[in-house]
Fold this sequence. Notes:
The structure holds two protein chains of two kinds. In chain A, 50% of the residues lie in helices and 16% in strands. Chain A is of the alpha/beta class. Chain B is of the alpha+beta class. Chain B folds into three domains: 2-120, no CATH class; 142-246, 2-Layer Sandwich (Beta-Lactamase), CATH 3.30.450.20; 282-446, Heat Shock Protein 90. Chain B has helices at residues 2-27, 29-32, 39-52, 54-71, 84-141, 160-166, 170-173, 193-199, 248-281, 287-310, 318-329, 346-365, 407-419; strands spanning 145-149, 155-158, 204-206, 213-216, 222-234, 237-246, 315-317, 335-338, 342-345, 375-383, 386-394, 423-429, 432-440, 444-446. The radius of gyration of chain B is 54 Å and the shape is rod-shaped. The relative contact order of chain B is 0.05. At the A-B interface, helix 2 of A face helix 9, helix 12 and helix 13 of B.
Amino acid sequence: MVPPNILQVPVLVVEDEVLIGMMVASILESIGFRSVIIAANSEQALRAADAHDFGLLVSDIILEHSKLNGIDIVVSLLDRKPVPVVFITAHAGVGDLQRITVEAPRAAVLRKPVVHRELNNAIAALTETWRTT
Amino acid sequence: MRDIVLFRSAWVNACLLLVAATAVRLSLDPVLGDRAPYLVFTFAVLVAGMRYGSLPGLFTAAVSTIAGLWMFIPPRFSFDSVSTDEWANIVAYVATCSAILLFSNRYRRAREAAVSSLAESRAATSRLQESQQRLAGIVDSAMDAIVTVNAGQHVTLFNPAAERMFGYSASDVCGQSVNRLLPERFRAGRDGHVQRFRQEDMTNRRINFLGPIYGRRSSGEEFPVEASISHVAIEGEQLTTVILRDITERKLNEEAQALLVREVDHRAKNALAVAQALVGITRGETIKEYTEAVTGRVASLARAHSILSQSRWKGAALSDVVQGELGACVAARQFVLCGPAVSLAKTAVQPFSLVLHELTTNAMRHGAASAKTGLVNVSWSVVEDQLELTWMESGGPETTSLKQPGVGLNLLRRTVENQLEGKLNLDWAPQGLRALLTVPSSRYSLGSGFESHS
C-alpha cells in the first residue's frame, strides 16, 4: 500500500506519447494520487517543476521532440530535491540502465506496457525505503 | 578404305618385287650363269617380309622358289630332272626364307608395339595437359580465393580471386611466408591460424567451427572469411590448400537484418503500448458505447500506422490523414477538404489521426455528420511558420458546449497541447462546431513528399 501522506504530493509524468501519459496518469489517480501533471518533453517538464513541488517522478526514457531525455530530466530534477523515481520504458539500452544505476540508484525501472499492479507495487516499495532512510 | 588400298598395294608390290628380282637375276646371268639361282630372290623376300608383312613375304618366297626352279635351275625353263645338288639349293633357299620371314615378323611386331606405346604416351601427355589446363582454368576463374601453402608455410599457389581479395599479386606472394596474409594476432603461437589448420586431423573440412577466421589485405585491413581446408601429400611434401570466401558483405547484411528486426520490434511494442493506453483511458456509459469508442480509436491508430508504413515511416501527407479519418466514418458528400500540400512529420501522424478521429466521432454523434444536410469543411494553410487547420461544421443540429469535458475532449486537448506542442481552440457556434488547430513547424513540412490524393 502506498502511504496516504504520499498521495497528497503532486506527481510529474514525463511521457512523449500522450495516450500512454494519460493512461499512467489514470493509473496514478486510481491509486489515489490527487494531482498528476503530464509533460511530453523536457521543456514542459522543467516548466511544470517550476510551478509544482513534485514528490514523485514517473518518466519515460526516450523522448521525441525533447532536448533532454528522461534520465537527463530526472537527474536535473533530483538535483533540486531528491524524490522517488519510477522509469517506464519500452526499449532502454544497457547504457541507459547503467546510467540509471549510477545517477539515480534508487529509481525503479518498469517495462512498457505498464499495468496498474506493477506501478502500484513499485511506488509502494519506493516510498517504503524512502521512509526508512 | 586406306587399309584396303595399303593391303592391295602390298600384294602388288610383292609381285613387282618378284618381277624386278627376276629381271636383275636375268641381267646377272652372264656373270653368275647357273650359280646362285636364288641370290637376288633372297633380297626380294627380305624386303617383302620386312615391308609388307608375313603373308606377302610367304607369297614372295613361294613364287620365287618355283620361279627360280623353273628359270634359273638347269635345265632352264623346265622342271625336268633336277639334280640332288640343286634340290639341296632349293631346301637351303626355303630354310633361309623361313628364317628371314620369322625375323621380319618379329621385327614388325616390335616396331608396331613401339609405335603404339609412343602414341599412347603422347595421348596420356595431352590428357594430362588438358586436365591441368582445366584445373588451372577452374582455379583461375574461381570466385573463391585459393591459396596453397607448403610445409615451410610458404605460398605456392595464389589464384586471381586471392589476388583481388588480399590485394597482392601472385608474384608478390608466391614463395613468401603465408604470414603476410594473416592479421598479426593470428600469425604465431598455438592459436595461430596456420597451426590450427595443421592440427586438423581430417583431410578436408570447413574450419570455421573453430571460431571466426580473419585475413589481412595489403592495405592492412582485416576481413572475416569462411574457409575450408585440405591437406595433400604430393611426393612426400605436405601441401595445405585453403579455400577462402570473403564474408564482409554477408556480415554487414546480417547486421542490417538484425537492426531491422530490432526496429520492427520497437514499433510493434510501441504500437501495443499505445493501444493498451487507448483501452485504458477510454470510458463509456455502457459496454456498447465503450466497445465502440475503443474500436474506433484503435482503428484510427491502425490507419495512422498503415499510412506511415506506405512512406516507410518517413511521414504522411496531411490530406491523406484527414481523408482517411473522415472518409472512414462520414459519407464523401458530407465533407470538403481544402489546403496546400503539407507533409506531417512521422511523429505527428498518429497524434493528428487521433485528433481528427475525435473530431469526426464528435461530429457523428452530436455535430454536422449526424444530420443528412450537415457538412464538415476542413481547410488548412501555413501562416507565419505555423500550420493552421480549421474544422468547420454546418447544417447540423444546433450545438451546445459540452457540460463536462469528457475523455475525448481531454484526449484532444492533451494530444494537441502536449504531444504536438500546438494550440486548440474550440468554438461551439450555433451553426456548428468550429475548431482551430495550430501546430508548430517542427511537426510538418511544406510540399508533397507523400501526396497520393489530388
